[in-house]
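#structure-requests
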Amino acid sequence: MIGKKKWYVKVLIIIALLVGAFYAAFPILWMFLNSFKPNSEIFAWPPTWISERFSFDAYKAIFQSPDQIRFFINSYVIAGTVVVFTLVIGILAAYAFSRFDFPGKSIINTLIVSVQAVPPITLLIPYLSLIVTLKLYNTYWALILTYMLFTLPYAILMTTGYFNTLPKDLDEAVMIDGGSRFKALWRILVPTAIPGLVSVGMYTFMQAWNEYLFALALTKTNNMRTVPVGINLLMGQHAYEWNQMMAMSVLGSLPVLILFLFFQRYFIAGMTAGSVKN
């Protein structure tokens, strides 16, 4: 009797997981299929899964548009730069928090955590004023510095938690052999902490790649816009280019999807290890 109950429970769990997976994947599938349809067919009733007029016109329009190509270039440059700077600064700060005791350490740590609790939209107006004052408006640096404001606290907290799981004997062994702390960090701790750093890097890239609000407010010309803003620009005053919006959304989702597929095991291991000890 107990065995039968367990069997039914397993079946119910599998069904629930399948329903949840379909619910989560349906919008993505619908977006992908609609990217190959003409605008007139997207809202046709009854809806069609596979278009009778299947075409790559939406993708061709994107690749033939200098502005939309520029959106992708901007997103790659900004997101890539944010990842590099966030990782380097985050590693150095995390090493200090993990290995040293210094005055104000707990206060600084509290401030870092509190930044994570502030809704980004509340900082839009003051940060816009700051960017304009620094004469960085409508530049790469305006977005890079802004995104680092939101990615660095997470990077420091997660990397500190990961470094805390690594014994201090590793540092001491390097210094006994005549090496410096800097060498111990970059030659020993960083390679050992690769899973945690990969998870931080992926999170940072996704944050910078998908951000819309500040990308819209801190830029004004198409040569500085990013992919999320570029998708919004396809909404015209009299007509929406739905198929191009869908195609651009598909292309915009690919970098994050590819990163996750390649680094999935590192991402999961890093997220788990970084939260064990803080």
